[in-house]
């Protein structure tokens, strides 16, 4: 018999959910395409109200404790504007 809590603690989904991360968005590279916003599974990226020097409204990270460091946002960003930190 397999205990439920054993399965729970060893599933990769739960390990990912327990990871902590944060991101940095290089505002001057961002073009406000919103792809990272659409793809972030935690929904913790949004558009800011401020424009960068190129006239784009840029993405902003909410500094939420919910970031898992999954790097989906950095992977999908066409401008390579996002760096991910895990810890
Ligand atoms: S690393 Fe993952 S959870 Fe964190 S902001 Fe990017 S997509 Fe969202
Ligand atoms: S995917 Fe990249 S360029 Fe697009 S809004 Fe997000 S940070 Fe900006």
Total count of strands: 4
CATH class category name: Alpha Beta
**Main sheet attributes: strand count, strand direction, barrel closure:** 2 strands, antiparallel
Query: Which parts are unreliable, with pLDDT below 50 for 5 consecutive residues or more?
Result: none
The CATH architecture can be given as 2-Layer Sandwich
What is the tally of helical segments?
Answer: 4
Shape: elongated
Remind me, CATH topology? Alpha-Beta Plaits
Strand percent estimate: 25-35%
- Please give the order of strands in the largest beta sheet: 1-4
Distance between the termini: 35 Å
Bound molecules: iron/sulfur cluster
Count of discrete structural domains: 1
Overall mean pLDDT stands at: 88
Q: Specify the helix fraction band.
A: 25-40%
Run of helices and strands: HHEHEEHE
Over all CA atoms, what is the radius of gyration? 16 Å
Give your account of this protein's structure.
- This protein is α+β, with helices and mostly antiparallel strands.
- It has one domain (20-86): Alpha-Beta Plaits (2-Layer Sandwich).
- Helix content is 28%, strand content 25%.
- It has 4 helices and 4 strands, in the order H-H-E-H-E-E-H-E.
- The chain has helices at 4-10, 12-18, 35-39, 72-76, and strands at residues 21-25, 45-51, 57-61, 82-86.
- The strands form 2 sheets. Strands 1-4 form a two-stranded antiparallel ribbon.
- The termini are far apart.
- Residues 25, 30-36, 58-59, 77, 79, 81-82 line the site of one iron/sulfur cluster.
- One iron/sulfur cluster binds at residues 21, 23, 40-42, 44-45, 67-73, 84.
